[in-house]
Amino acid sequence: MEQNWFFPPHDGVRLGDLANALGAELLDPSAAARMVRNVAPVYRAKDGDICYMLSRKSKSELETCQATAILCDKALASIVPAHIAVLQTSRAHMAFALAGEILQPAAMRPALTTSEPAGISALAYVDPTARLEPGVVVEPMAVIGADVEVGAGTRIGPGVVLGPGVKIGRDCTIAAGAKLQCALVGNRVILHPGASVGQDGFGYGPGPKGGMVKIVQVGRVIIQDDVEIGANTTIDRGTMDDTVIGEGTKIDNQVQIGHNVRIGRHCGIVSKVGIAGSARIGDGVMIGGAAGINGHITIGDGVQIAAMSGVVADIPAGERYGGIPARPMRDFLRDVAEMTMRSANRSKKTGDNE
């Protein structure tokens, strides 16, 4: 890959210092003074890069690897070429993520769009009743509504709209084009471009002539600390209760979260997931891409849901489910195996009859 000017290399971190910061063991102490400047995949890592390896499947990629260092566990250290320093750790994936944060801090949250001095742009609108702590950045064309509160160190990107009474905590990033209303947001929250939070939930009752009558949506959205919300994700406000996103939860792009949904702490929700109104999601739940979650059901703590699943009923804590309708993973995989075998048998019979 050609030089990436969007994320230039770090000035350099001594490998020994990096190992200490990551809690990894540098197997060759004589390599401690080598400098690491960037992260890279194994197959094209060059001098100054650090990469990571999780299994022997990457062994062939080591043939072209010229990295300064590689993160891996004890079982893989022996296959690393002698010219690459080994940082041994049982959590190579996590250590690599931390290395990226050290070497590419600017990539950890959406960057400022304009190069004008930090502060409140003359091209933004800030209502006179809004209260912004020192150090808030407001970029051009942002609109800060009446009685909004924004904490120190928060960045408000271009075209962002904060509706009346919205509260944003400290050190948050609200990226270009995001829109919030009826929302209370904690500290260190990231909203990527185009995210929409706090709009009406989808609620209608039967009308007198067969149509639908709108049900008012007068709840809020509460987003706790350290949440990250992807581009073009939508989170509806509650009907009369609150929609809640728990501390540390990470939500991918293009996810739809309905009214009154409550999501626990440290969940991971992948792109195109749809969660219908009043669903309850426990702590540490992982939901694969394009899964659909029925409304008014409960997903227990630690549940894992496979991509493309359709969840129609409660799932007990700690279970792994998949399929449509979603069922325990062992049952889902058995059903898939049976269908595959039947299909193969039908194909064989068709071939024999030709």
Automatic annotation (TrEMBL):
Entries under InterPro entries matching the protein: Hexapep, Hexapep_transf_CS, LpxD, Trimer_LpxA-like_sf, UDP_GlcNAc_AcTrfase_non-rep
Taxonomic lineage of the native organism: Bacteria, Pseudomonadati, Pseudomonadota, Alphaproteobacteria, Hyphomicrobiales
GO molecular function: UDP-3-O-[(3R)-3-hydroxyacyl]-glucosamine N-acyltransferase activity
Pathway named in the protein's UniProt entry: Bacterial outer membrane biogenesis; LPS lipid A biosynthesis
Alphabetized Gene3D superfamilies for the sequence: Hexapeptide repeat proteins, MurE/MurF, N-terminal domain
PANTHER family, A to Z: UDP-3-O-ACYLGLUCOSAMINE N-ACYLTRANSFERASE, UDP-3-O-ACYLGLUCOSAMINE N-ACYLTRANSFERASE 1, MITOCHONDRIAL-RELATED
Catalytic activity: a UDP-3-O-[(3R)-3-hydroxyacyl]-alpha-D-glucosamine + a (3R)-hydroxyacyl-[ACP] = a UDP-2-N,3-O-bis[(3R)-3-hydroxyacyl]-alpha-D-glucosamine + holo-[ACP] + H(+)
Keywords assigned: Acyltransferase, Lipid A biosynthesis, Lipid biosynthesis, Lipid metabolism, Repeat, Transferase
Stated role: Catalyzes the N-acylation of UDP-3-O-acylglucosamine using 3-hydroxyacyl-ACP as the acyl donor. Is involved in the biosynthesis of lipid A, a phosphorylated glycolipid that anchors the lipopolysaccharide to the outer membrane of the cell.
Organism this protein belongs to: Mycoplana ramosa
Domain UDP-3-O-[3-hydroxymyristoyl] glucosamine N-acyltransferase non-repeat region: 35-100
Keyword Nucleotidyltransferase: no
Subunit structure comment from the entry: Homotrimer.
Record Pfam families: Hexapep (PF00132), Hexapep_2 (PF14602), LpxD (PF04613)
Similarity comment: family membership: Belongs to the transferase hexapeptide repeat family. LpxD subfamily.
Record protein name field: UDP-3-O-acylglucosamine N-acyltransferase
Record flagged with keyword Lipid metabolism: yes
Enzyme Commission (EC) number: 2.3.1.191
Catalytic residues of the enzyme: 259 (proton acceptor)
